[in-house]
Design goal:
By secondary structure, the chain is α/β, with parallel strands linked by helices. The protein has 2 domains: 6-227, Spore Coat Polysaccharide Biosynthesis Protein SpsA, Chain A, CATH 3.90.550.10; 238-324. It contains 12 helices and 15 strands. Strands 2, 3, 4, 6, 7, 8, 13, 14 and 15 form a 9-stranded mixed sheet that branches. A two-stranded parallel ribbon has the order 1-5. α7 (238-255) packs parallel to α9 and α8 (258-281) runs antiparallel to α9. The N and C termini lie far apart (50 Å).
Length: 345
């Protein structure tokens, strides 16, 4: 563990967990496109049990290395890593991202010129299909009125090709944790990522707090990176399904205002029951158990979140967040609106 805080204007922090092969593949491009006089790449090892740490020490001794004693998950892993960083900006960057020339300077330049913005993300394309958007982030994240996330360029399982249709800089609801540039001061003031989420939905929850407290999140499409995605858990993994369901419910409990709470949760339960029934009819019993466990654990954890919810509600400045979609994305999608531009006219 580094005991002296790393001071630099911009810290690009890669949280690694058993990712030696990803580091070997992607770290060279990140260093090539990132390291400048006021920007450094920092690796935070999240309790890896492979030989990632030895690989980094032997091949990249110039890179600052933060060693965490165990796997804290994505959320608390970053929280603990950033305790060792003293910078104006922090970029949370997945280890399975290929960067491009100028990717980080474009983000930082925008942040320098827009102090009201707490976080930004680049345009994120698929590493395996480079003419398509990447599932987890695309050209900016949004949620609907019931808390279902979607992206500009990806709605549910429909992923669009990048034809320049989303190259405008716009306000978004959330920036993806795969590549998010955030002001460290803002990150700390809202409490950082929720460590109890472990992984999944934590960046949406963080950005909800930014939005509600009057800070902006934007996508800067002139900055481009390519993301593999699913490096830790595949999209259909029951554990991932469990975390997504549980954490989404916790996020709603933490952030939805009292006047909208009952209505939101009633409809959310109905939609989730329909998803549960669909999984049951398809015989996906591990996924069915994951949904049941997610709801059970949510109800068990809810009481411990009462004070967190009260604090969040007390600090709300913006009650109607302009970047939140005020309809149901599920209803619109299954009615034929399967692209972002067909929703937002």
């Amino acid at each position: 563990m580094i005991t002296t805080k790393i001071k630099i204007k911009t810290a690009v922090v890669i949280l690694n967990w058993n990712g030696k092969s990803l580091l070997k593949q992607f770290l060279p491009s990140v260093i090539e496109h990132t390291v400048t006089e006021d920007c450094r790449v920092i690796i935070a090892d999240n309790g890896s049990t492979d030989d990632s740490v030895d690989f980094l020490k032997n091949n990249y001794p110039q890179l600052p290395l933060i060693i965490l004693e165990r796997n804290y998950g994505f959320a608390d892993g970053y929280n603990k890593a950033l305790e060792n960083v003293d910078s104006e900006y922090v970029v949370l960057l997945n280890s399975d991202v290929e960067t491009t020339s100028g990717w980080v300077t474009g983000l930082i330049s925008f942040m320098d010129n827009n102090p009201h913005v707490a976080a930004v993300q680049p345009k994120i394309l698929s590493y395996n299909e480079k003419d398509k958007f990447e599932y987890a982030g695309a050209a900016g994240g949004f949620i609907d009125k019931y808390g279902y996330p979607f992206c500009r360029g990806r709605i549910l399982n429909t992923v669009e090709r990048d034809e320049g249709q989303y190259d405008k800089e716009i306000d978004i609801f959330w920036a993806t944790g795969a590549c998010m540039c955030v002001r460290l001061r803002d990150y700390q003031e809202v409490g950082g990522l929720d460590g109890r989420f472990f992984a999944h939905m934590e960046e949406i929850d963080l950005c909800w707090r930014f939005n509600a407290r009057g800070r902006k999140i934007m996508c800067i499409p002139s900055s481009i990176v390519y993301h593999v995605g699913g490096a830790s858990l595949s999209k259909d993994n029951p554990k991932k399904l469990y975390l997504n369901f549980r954490n989404n419910l916790l996020m709603l409990y933490k952030n939805v205002t009292p006047q909208n709470f009952k209505h939101t949760f009633l409809f959310r339960y109905i939609f989730d029951f329909m998803a549960f029934s669909h999984l049951l009819l398809k015989g996906q019993f591990k996924s069915v158990k994951a949904v049941v466990k997610a709801y059970r654990d949510f109800f068990e954890m809810r009481k411990s979140y009462e004070s967190v919810r009260a604090e969040n509600i007390s600090k709300i400045i913006v009650t109607n967040i302009s970047s939140q979609y005020n309809k149901s994305i599920l209803i619109k999608y299954y009615s034929g609106n399967k692209t972002f531009n067909s929703l937002i006219k």
